[in-house]
Amino acid sequence: MSRPRGRFLPILGRTSASPESIGLCRMQIFVNLTPCRMPFLCRPSLQDRPMLFTWLKQRRRRQLLGLPFPPEWDGVLDTNVRIFQDLRGEEQQKLRGLIQVFIAEKNWEGCGGLVLTDEMKVTIAAQACLLVLGFDGVFFDHVLSILVYPTTYVVPEKSVDRVGIETEDRSTRLGEAWYRGPVILSWEDALASGRNESDGHNVVLHEFAHQLDMINDQSVDGTPPLATPELYERWTELIHEEFQQLKRDCRRGEWTVLDCYGTTNIGEFFAVATESFFESSIAMQERHPQLYALFCEFYRQDPASR
Are 60 and 123 part of one and the same domain? Predict the structure, then answer.
């Protein structure tokens, strides 16, 4: 039986997650509302430099980066993160450092009775940090916590129809990304993603792509922080063109490199395209050369060349 691919994006700007939305986990989500509609004016790069990014934090990171990488963690990367083997030597070394900082700085919580292990943390951290491998000093500072369920989890959803009648349903989810809050993941699916058991699909890359998308503000609009106004203009034009093309292809039932889940909205398109960029890079380069080149420019990586 196939599981729904319903990755949920919550109503953004809420100050906390309700118990219904995260089941057995109770985690306060602190929100800093700083909307900006012109990403290149708000933040010229992906480097997070909040006021509280103090000298002490930088020193602690230097200490973490100076520690030897645990040999058992290398074993986890070899077993659970297939794409790690495709990286060049210097990329592998940099990713190890990102993993060490990421694991140390995030609050990790097992949900639904799951007891978190180093294997789980390393597997998830490696996939998340792959997105920022091309940048310097980016550690997803705005992500406070990682909540992990054993498998897909079910949460209630309420909706109100046109005449004001409220109904409640239940939704099965692989993961969620909260604005300046936690990322919630299914361990079963995070592990399958790392081992590339479902080529082209990766729930960790998907949810952390949403987090990149939300750095500018709480809206999920498919536009992460971009370096220049020129790149911003090219990005918005091409992303919307490719989004509309995907909707046409999916309506016709044609085979697509990009998952049709990306037709949900422009934010989901960016997350789905990010999955394909890392998981199906050669196919994406062949079928969507302009989009692939644009993602190479943004992520500062060229996965198809590895």
Answer: yes
Query: For the segment 123-142, what is each residue's pLDDT rounded down to a tens digit?
Result: 999 999 999 999 998 899 99
Task: State the residue for tokens 């490696």.
Answer: 126
156 has which bridge partners?
170
Grade residue 161 by pLDDT with cuts at 50, 70 and 90.
low
Q: Which domain holds residue 134?
A: 1-29+51-198
How many C-beta atoms lie closer than 10 Å to residue 12's C-beta? Answer: 17
CA dist list (Å): 117 to 77, 148, 284: 14, 11, 34
The 10s digit of each residue's pLDDT in 240-261 is: 999 999 999 999 999 999 999 9
Regarding whether 236 and 183 lie in a shared domain, the answer is no
Q: Pick from 278, 226, 238: which is nearest to 257 by CA?
A: 278
Q: Which of 166, 198, 230 is the endpoint of a domain?
A: 198
Q: Can you give the CATH number for the domain in which 297 is found? A: 3.40.390.10
C-beta of residue 138 within 8 angstroms of C-beta of residue 47: yes
Residue 3: is its pLDDT beyond 60?
no
Specify whether the CB–CB gap between 239 and 226 falls below 8 A. no
Question: In whole angstroms, how far apart are CA 4 and each of 152, 159, 173, 189, 301?
Answer: 9, 19, 7, 12, 30
Which DSSP letter does residue 304 get? G
How far, CA to CA in Å, does 99 sit from each of 37, 75, 184?
Answer: 31, 14, 18
Residue type, 120: M
**Residue of 287, 112, 98, 274 whose CA lies nearest to 193:** 274
Kindly report the pTM of this predicted structure. 0.82
159 band by pLDDT with thresholds 50, 70 and 90: low
Confirm whether 263 is domain-assigned.
yes
Residue 6 has pLDDT above 60, yes or no: no
